[in-house]
Write a structure and sequence with these properties.
5-stranded parallel beta sheet, 125 residues
Length: 125
């Protein structure tokens, strides 16, 4: 998918997401990394069967932001703070395309969240 950059605040302003170190959790399709090539998926790291603590520790050491539909990472971020940062996709059953659209629509918010040294989690729905 080509990168389309326009003014900040527009729906297509999401190029910054392409280079952000996002780690997609098992509850999201590994195909999503095709759209966000600066990211990876737990499956690509051999962590598809790992518990949340192992994924958390890996993301912390490697500088990734966890993207998940799992509320457990949200709870963990409340308990331990960051790093790593957590983006919680709070949208129940939805397609991979829906998740991509959410991340694209809120790209400016995600970028601001990742740039904020005090922010620990971001909820998108």
């Amino acid at each position: 998918m080509p990168c389309v950059c326009r003014r900040p605040g527009t729906a297509s302003y999401w190029c910054a997401l392409l280079t952000m170190p996002l780690l997609f959790d098992q509850n999201l399709s590994f195909h999503i990394t095709r759209v966000f090539p600066g990211s990876t998926h737990v499956r690509n790291l051999g962590l598809e069967e790992a518990n949340d603590g192992v994924i958390w520790d890996y993301a912390k050491r490697a500088g990734f932001t966890i993207v998940s539909k799992d509320g457990d990472f949200h709870q963990r971020s409340l308990l331990y703070g960051q790093p790593p940062k957590v983006i919680w996709i709070r949208r129940g059953n939805c397609s991979t395309q829906d998740v991509i659209k959410i991340l694209q629509a809120f790209a400016a918010d995600v970028e601001q969240f990742l740039d904020d040294p005090s922010a620990a989690f971001l909820v998108l729905s």
